[in-house]
Records
---
Amino acid sequence: MNNTQLISVSKRLSLYLRHAPERIGLTLSPDGWVTVEELLAALARHNLALTRAELDEVVDGNDKQRFAFDATGNRIRANQGHSVPVDLDLPIAVPPAVLYHGTVEKFLGAIWREGLRPMRRRHVHLSATAQTATSVGARRGPPVVLRVDSAAMAAARHQFRVSANGVWLVTHVPPHYLSAWNPSI
Ligand code: HQG
């Protein structure tokens, strides 16, 4: 598969494994898994016939490691980013002292007022580096990066989890734990 095909299949997998499994007749387990067999059959019924080897290529070659197989290799799920109600069963983890969130200026008014909210997803997504947060924000326009005082949040018993691909997940970041990282905001 060439790079354009890999990206296109990855987008379709993100759609079905995070947001709209019912669109191709799939039901995810409560922790987000579906069997590879069911997924490949459902994709084939919807004009995306893939071999197992091609699916492996998409999973292994994915730039952000968005998908994972279980230990048996027979089931697959998205590592994070869901909007459907799944509980990934990730253990609570101790975050680094500082985490980052990339966004854009138009959301800042609401974010300073009410903090970071999951919006359409299950979790607020936080990055370990300002560089990653910059790319996350840049998906929507000139990026603005916020610094999250995760040490203080953890001390106040907010629960952090980290996805298999290194994204830090929380349900809310109240505004007093946020500050501007970009010097200009
Ligand atoms: C903003 C991509 C108004 C928030 C990325 C963001 C990430 C608020 C947007 C992953 C708000 C939600 C997630 C509030 C937060 N009022 N706006 N109170 N709180 N927002 O896409 O973090 O490529 O759901 O700043 O790399 O941008 O898909 O979240 O701009 O890891 O694998 O509301 O998606 O990964 O947008 O991105 P999103 P996100 P993938």
Note: The helical segments are 3-19, 36-45, 52-60, 108-114, 130-138, 150-155.
---
Amino acid sequence: MTARIAGIGAYVPETIVTNDDLAKIVETSDEWISSRTGIRERRISTKEGTSDLAAEAARRALEAAGVKPEELDLIILGTSSPDCNYPSGACEVQAKIGAVNAAAFDISAACSGFIFAMNIVQGFFKSGIYQTALIIGAETLSKVVDWDDRSTCVLFGDGAGAAVLKNEESGIIDMLMGSDGTKGEALKCTSRSLGNFLTGERPELGFMTMDGQEVFRFAVKRVPESIESLIKRNQTAKEDIRYYILHQANERIVEAVARRLKEPMDKFPMIIEKYGNTSTASIPLLLDDMVKKGMLKAGDKIILSGFGAGMTWGAVLLEW
Ligand code: ACO
């Protein structure tokens, strides 16, 4: 038995912020942003929090799967921008959708969160503990981005994607995860300062900082390596892979990965143009877009690949 994606759902806030809009608040241009990243616009939340976006994506995934909230055994939310330290975003989603029988918790694996969540569910399914799970990737990164820093604020967007997983005969074939904590400084968002009565400082919220070139180097090395490794150890031919569904960080990263894998760009669908980098939400947002366009057929072999802060990376080979 293995995890099968039974339904996908996605939700983004309605406010669209274009590159030209950003050029009014920092020194940048549509040309600079789109030529270096592929991004033209992103959604920014003004009213809804991470758990609101997550709950709506979850409702849509449940509807697509034909699963009732009370049938869920488990909810895992991958996020690096939760609304609260506690309760977890997953518990907030549980309450919003009425998944009364589910255990719920968040994981922090940045842009790899959706893949890590899928891996965790697979473990529970393989052990026979749970049969039906909901995984969600949701972010409101707009609240941790430094809107005075043009090198990061142009990259990110808010959104959520979810998948209902069921323990069935076919689905996930193999998966892997990895982390390299020594490179953590490359992409960082502190949430703690030593603000207490002894230091006399007030607690401060941190903003995201990024060494873009270090992240780029990490991604174009680790992503093809992990994909090659999955393909090799499952004796699968690249010709048998219908699509590579990569975390939507940057068009140039996706192109570099395609070159290293010697695979054509039409096997690498993208939605970064519309949504920017939505971190852990990007893979389910892309899957949802592909389902709506009828791009995925039963039996298609696809590879999902996430990578991000930590640094972390993970990949899944599955049959649709
Ligand atoms: N508009 C105009 N100019 C800018 C902007 C901007 N938004 N941002 C930076 N610049 C300037 C810099 O100040 C610099 O100017 P200088 O030469 O006068 O000092 C110049 O552009 C070049 O800056 P670099 O940082 O060297 O730009 P680079 O070509 O490396 O592109 C980018 C930056 C797009 C971030 C690139 O490094 C990259 O793609 N990195 C990958 C990081 C990434 O995708 N992160 C996403 C989050 S991580 C994740 O999801 C896994």
Note: The pocket of acetyl coenzyme *A is lined by residues 28, 32-33, 36-37, 111, 150-151, 154-155, 187, 210, 212-213, 215-216, 219, 249-250, 252-253, 277, 307-308 (CB under 6 Å).
